[in-house]
Specification:
Helices cover 45% and strands 0% of the residues. By secondary structure, the chain is an all-alpha fold. The longest helix is centred in the middle third of the chain and has 21 residues.
């Protein structure tokens, strides 16, 4: 069989002319949300479910949901990080 000569793959720059990097405050805010959510959950476990927001005993799992929600905002922000 004859060998077919393959041409090298050309890569295009997809960056638009008007597209720029993120503002200076973006990365600290993103990591801040992630760390705040983690800290919220850690405080909840260390305080045995009484802090940061004292919910009634049957609703104490809302603190975990709030902590994961705050951290999730930080992880969603990674989608727009350049």
């Amino acid at each position: 069989m004859a060998r077919v000569k393959s041409s090298p793959v050309r890569r295009e720059e997809r960056r638009a002319a008007g597209e720029s990097v993120n503002p200076v405050w973006f990365k600290p805010l993103m990591f801040g949300f992630m760390l705040l959510g983690l800290l919220w959950i850690v405080v909840f476990y260390i305080s045995s479910g009484t802090l940061p927001i004292p919910f009634p005993a049957e609703q104490s799992s809302w603190n975990i949901l709030i902590g994961f929600g705050i951290a999730f905002v930080g992880f969603i922000m990674t989608l727009w990080w350049r």
